[in-house]
């Protein structure tokens, strides 16, 4: 018989066995971490210390290995690696020009040109006065 509204049917024994087996497998592979480190990929944002707090004003020795790790994480990929690590990094990895830039070579250098249109502007549509002329 179906349960009344708001009440549940008793759980199925087979479903309970499956849940118990899954919980047993999860507990078997769980590890308890007690040592935590800073993620070298994600930048660390420092928060200023409280000036009146005695426990935060204690000077601690600087860990050189930790500082190297932080500086390594802050480097750009081109300084970290000798070649691109992903396909996205391949685009733009080599930024040196293939041909040296020469301003006298007109094939690659297109300076701005001054023409009548760039100095005076485009011609006015019909019925309007050009720039600089007043209708007095």
Structure notes:
The protein is mostly helical. The protein has helices at 13-29, 64-74, 77-80, 87-90, 116-120. The mean pLDDT is 79.
Category by helix and strand content: mainly alpha
Helix % is 25-40%
Quote the beta fraction.
Answer: under 5%
Q: Would you identify the regions where 5 or more consecutive residues have pLDDT less than 50? A: none
Give the strand tally: 0
Shape: extended
**Helix and strand sequence:** HHHHH
Supply the number of helical segments.
Answer: 5
Q: In angstroms, what separates the terminal alpha carbons?
A: 99 Å
Let me know the largest β-sheet.
none
- Mean pLDDT across every amino acid position: 79
Task: Record the SSE blueprint.
Layout: H1 13-29, H2 64-74, H3 77-80, H4 87-90, H5 116-120
For this entry, give a set of tags.
mainly alpha, 0% strand, 5 helices, 30% helix, 136 residues
What's this, in brief?
By secondary structure, this protein is mainly alpha-helical. The protein has five helices and no strands.
């Amino acid at each position: 018989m179906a349960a009344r509204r708001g009440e549940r049917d008793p759980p199925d024994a087979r479903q309970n066995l499956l849940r118990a087996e899954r919980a047993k497998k999860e507990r078997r592979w769980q590890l308890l971490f007690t040592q935590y480190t800073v993620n070298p990929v994600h930048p660390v944002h420092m928060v200023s210390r409280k000036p009146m707090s005695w426990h935060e004003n204690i000077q601690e020795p600087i860990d050189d290995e930790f500082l190297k790790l932080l500086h390594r994480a802050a480097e750009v990929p081109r300084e970290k690696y000798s070649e691109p690590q992903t396909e996205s990094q391949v685009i733009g990895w080599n930024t040196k020009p293939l041909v040296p830039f020469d301003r006298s070579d007109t094939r690659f250098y297109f300076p701005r040109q001054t023409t009548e249109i760039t100095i005076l502007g485009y011609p006015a549509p019909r019925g309007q006065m050009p720039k600089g002329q007043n209708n007095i």
